[in-house]
Structures are given as structure tokens and as C-alpha cells.
Specification:
Layout lengths: L3 E5 L4 H12 L3 E6 L8 H9 L4 E4 L5 H8 L5 E4 L6 H6 L1 H22 L3 E7 L22 H19 L4 E7 L1 E3 L18 H9 L6 E4 L11 E2 L1 E3 H17 L4 E5 L5 E2 H12 L5 E4 L8 E2 L4 H7 L7 H18 L1
Parallel strand pairs: 1-2, 1-4, 2-3, 4-5, 5-6, 6-11, 7-10, 8-13, 9-14
Antiparallel strand pairs: 9-12
This protein binds nicotinamide-adenine-dinucleotide.
């Protein structure tokens, strides 16, 4: 019988792509989401992609009793995406970030323990590294979070490591994502935040569709070849596959893992804009604004460990990330 996986936050951007990848890999999957940053029609879209009914539970990870009752239904593992993810919002409303990201994880793990579920994959972030100097960033790089959001992710890792240490039958997969972008090849699901986007590619998409007049590049005087910041972007379909490999490893081996998921190469802001311009055939006006505090000049992952432990290798390049994002954005705009 196929293993049954609970995806908290599974209706969101990365969760919905991971749902498809897990179904394709033969897992049976249930989504749990409170839909505060997801659209209500995501289940219909996932059903169109997978050709099968989608099991969705509307619940909140902050509700300990609800999590206990859900986990009692019998799962083999949890993938925990549910979280708030805006860096600026975390600074103005830290209480909400600690409640959702920390208390929500603790409720989930407590419910898992009571229901005897012993495998969890956790959405962590390259944000836990802060502004690391030495590149590439390996998993041995010091954890030095510089904002509330990043601190809640560092807490999640530390908490799960303590649980795994105290309960040796617990297996944890800690995945530090670099910058997920792109959309599913069907064009049916993608990054469609209900809040104004903070990440580069969704902002570029809004400029390309005409929903925003221009975008701001924060700093063009970094010591990089074109002066703009360099980041490691990873296609969300590659990232989704990383979760399948992580779960496989937790089921097949008696050990936990902590890995970076990126491509191992960086692209500058100007390179991303130029690529998006080519694939969309739209003008992308921009203006140069001052650097933002805490933004490093360069950040890209050392992906050796993900390759060695999980057999993970990113397959999509920047053009594919931008083209799939544009296909989704253009289709969503046409339907709106
Ligand atoms: N997108 C990124 O750039 C990025 C980078 C690194 C890590 N992450 C992490 O990956 C995970 C998924 O991110 P995403 O980009 O898909 O974000 P997302 O906002 O699209 O998905 C998160 C989902 O969780 C749900 N959710 C939020 N609070 C909840 C709660 N209390 N109870 C139940 N559901 C709740 C939201 O409705 C949403 O569907 C998050 O943990 C995020 O911090 C994201």
C-alpha cells in the first residue's frame, strides 16, 4: 500500500507543486491548509493536473486539538510547509510569526508523537545563513539569522533536531531552500501570492503583465560583474522533486538529513530581468534604488550534500524558471 503523507501548507506555492510530484512518485497525499495565503480553487487545479480527486483538510496548525485529530487519521509522514514567509511582516508583527511558524510546528510534532508518526520534512530557508561571506554556502556555514522570519526557521530546525536527538526513532529532513521560482509546466499552478509580492520574480511578473509600472533594483554598486545582487534561484519543480527524494531517504534509511536545495549557481538581478524580458517579449522597466540593509552581494549554495545524500540535481535553468513563471502569470492575467 502506498505511504500516506500529510502536507501542511500544501495548498501554497511550493506545497502544491510538491503535491503533484508526490502523487507522480506513487505516494498518497492529503493537504492541510488554512488558506490564508492560498486560493480556494487549488484542489480543482491539482485534480486537473493529476486526474484524481484531491484530499484537502481546512485546518490551522496553530490549533493543537485540530492537529491531534487530523494526525490520528493515520499518516506515515508529514511535510511541513505551513508558515508565514514575509521578512518585512515578520519585523512588524513578530508575535504572528512565532505563533504560526514555531507554535504551529510544535503542535504538528506533538500531534505526530501522539499518533506515532515518526517522519517529517521541514521547509527551512537559506535565510538562516544571514549574510554569509564565503561562497558557496555549505551546510557547515554558521547559522546566523538576521530577521524574525529567519529566526523562526532556525528555531524550527533546532527544535526538530532536539526531538530527533531525544527520540531516536524520529527521522527529520531539514531542507534549506534557496530562491524558489517558476511554475508547473501545465500553467495551472504557480506563485500567486494574495499579498503584494516581495520576491524578485513575482514582482517582475507583475511588471510584465502591466499590473505594476516598474520595479526597483536595490543597489547596482555591489562588487559583482554588473553591480546587482546575485542569488541562487531554483525551479519549483526541481524543489518539489527534492521533497520526494527527502521523503524516500527518510523511509529507506535510518538517518536524518539537513541539506541545501539550490542549483549551485547564481544569477544577477539584471540577468533575471533580461531573461524574463526575452521569454515574455515584454518591456520590464526598472529603477535603481538604494541597497537594502542586510542584503548580501552574492549568495549561492554548495549543493554537494544534496547530490551525495539524496541524489538531487537541479534540472531547470533560469530560462525555464522565467518561461514557466511567465506562462502561469500570463494565463492568470488573461483569466482575471
Ligand atoms: N517561497 C520562498 O521563497 C521560500 C524560501 C525558503 C523557505 N520557504 C518556506 O517554504 C514554505 C512554503 O512556502 P511557499 O512559498 O509555498 O509559501 P505559501 O505562502 O505559498 O505557502 C504556505 C501555505 O501555508 C498556509 N498556512 C500559513 N499559515 C498556516 C497555518 N497557521 N495553518 C495552516 N496553513 C497555513 C498558507 O495558506 C499557504 O497555503 C514556508 O514554510 C516558507 O517559509 C519559502
Amino acid at each position: 500500500m502506498s505511504k500516506h503523507i500529510l502536507l501542511t501548507g500544501g495548498a501554497g506555492f511550493i506545497g502544491s507543486h510538491t503535491y503533484v510530484a508526490l502523487i507522480e512518485a506513487g505516494y498518497s497525499v492529503t493537504i492541510l491548509d488554512n488558506f490564508e495565503n492560498a486560493h480556494s480553487d487549488v484542489a480543482d487545479r491539482l485534480e486537473r493536473i493529476t486526474g484524481a480527486p484531491v484530499s484537502v483538510i481546512k485546518a490551522d496548525v496553530r490549533d493543537a486539538a485540530a492537529m491531534k485529530s487530523v494526525l490520528n487519521a493515520g499518516f506515515d509522514a508529514v511535510v511541513h510547509f505551513a508558515a508565514l514567509k514575509s521578512v518585512p511582516d515578520g519585523e512588524t508583527d513578530p508575535a504572528s510569526y512565532y505563533r504560526s511558524n514555531c507554535a504551529g510546528l510544535m503542535n504538528t510534532v506533538e500531534a505526530m508523537r501522539q499518533a506515532d508518526v515518526r517522519r517529517i520534512v521541514f521547509s527551512s530557508s537559506a535565510a538562516v545563513y544571514g549574510s554569509a561571506d564565503a561562497m558557496p554556502i555549505s551546510e557547515a556555514t554558521a547559522v546566523a539569522p538576521e530577521n524574525t522570519y529567519a529566526r523562526t526557521k532556525a528555531f524550527g530546525e533546532e527544535y526538530l533536531q532536539a526531538i530527533a536527538h531525544a527520540h531516536p526513532d524520529f527521522r527529520i529532513g531539514l531542507l534549506r531552500y534557496f530562491n524558489p521560482v517558476g511554475a508547473h509546466s501545465s500553467g495551472l499552478i504557480g506563485e500567486d501570492p494574495s499579498q503584494p509580492p516581495g520576491n524578485l520574480v513575482p514582482v517582475i511578473a507583475r511588471v510584465a503583465t502591466g499590473d505594476m509600472p516598474s520595479l526597483k533594483i536595490f543597489g547596482d554598486d555591489y562588487s559583482t560583474p554588473d553591480g546587482t545582487g546575485i542569488r541562487d534561484y531554483i525551479h519549483v519543480e526541481d524543489l518539489a522533486r527534492g521533497h520526494v527524494l527527502s521523503l524516500n531517504a527518510l523511509f529507506e534509511r535510518d538517518e536524518s538529513h539537513l541539506v541545501n536545495l539550490g542549483t549551485g549557481r547564481g544569477y544577477s538581478v539584471l540577468e533575471v530581468i533580461a531573461t524574463y524580458k526575452t521569454v515574455s517579449n515584454r518591456d520590464i522597466p526598472f529603477e535603481i534604488a538604494p541597497r537594502r540593509v542586510g542584503d548580501p552581494a552574492i549568495s549561492y549554495a554548495d549543493v554537494t550534500r544534496a547530490r551525495e545524500l539524496l541524489g538531487f540535481e537541479a534540472q531547470h535553468d533560469l530560462r525555464s524558471m522565467c518561461a514557466s513563471n511567465w506562462a502561469f502569470a500570463a494565463q492568470s492575467k488573461a483569466l482575471s
